[in-house]
Amino acid sequence: MPTRTARTAWNGTLEQGSGQVEFTSSGVGTYEVSFPKRAADDAGGTTSPEEMIAAAHSSCFAMQLSALIAEAGGTPQSLEVRADVSLGPDDPGFKLTGIVLTVRGEVDGLDAAGFARVAQAAKESCPVSKALTGVPITLDAALD
User: Fold this and answer.
1) Residue 25 contacts by C-beta under 8 Å, 6 or more apart in sequence?
2) Please, which residues have CB within 8 angstroms of residue 116's CB and are 6 or more apart in sequence?
3) What is the distance of C-alpha 66 from the center of its chain?
4) Which helix (DSSP H) or strand (DSSP E) does residue 129 occupy?
5) What integer pLDDT is reported at residue 43 of this predicted model?
6) Beta sheet of 94-108, edge-to-edge order
């Protein structure tokens, strides 16, 4: 399996500085990051490590869930996955305080209980969930 790469160029102090995150492997873009905007309610056009973790987690979970639905005899028609990643204080600094995965699915061949079971298995087995074992992860899974 390949290794993927991202690069960050940072200038200045934490409070006054800013940076650019480049998705190097894919070349899909370079995105602005800033600590004051990271800690604010309005991101103001910048991304953050938490948003990038949310993107990684939601996409990884969707892929894993799709695979496990098929293994369970179902056919996923559509999956809508949202990951909400929270940042909070720690001593010293900050930490991820929780992740909420919300999935709504349109699936043939599985009932609500089967979907919930497979979604829980996907939460536990997706590589990003495994990497984030130090963060509480909750799941809200339901069929549409």
Assistant:
1) 2, 3, 4, 5, 6
2) 141, 142
3) 16
4) helix 127-131
5) 93
6) 75-89, 94-108, 137-143
Q: How far apart are CA 116 and CA 47, in angstroms?
A: 31
The pTM (predicted TM-score) of the whole model is 0.95
Which token pair is 29?
Answer: 């873009």
- Tokens 């079971």, residue? 117
Contact 83, 99 (CB under 8 A): yes
Q: Which amino acid is at 88?
A: G
Q: How far apart are CA 75 and CA 134, in angstroms?
A: 32
Looking up tokens 């650019």 gives: 20
- The tokens of 44 are what? 């103001």
99-123: per-residue pLDDT in tens? 999 999 999 999 999 999 999 999 9
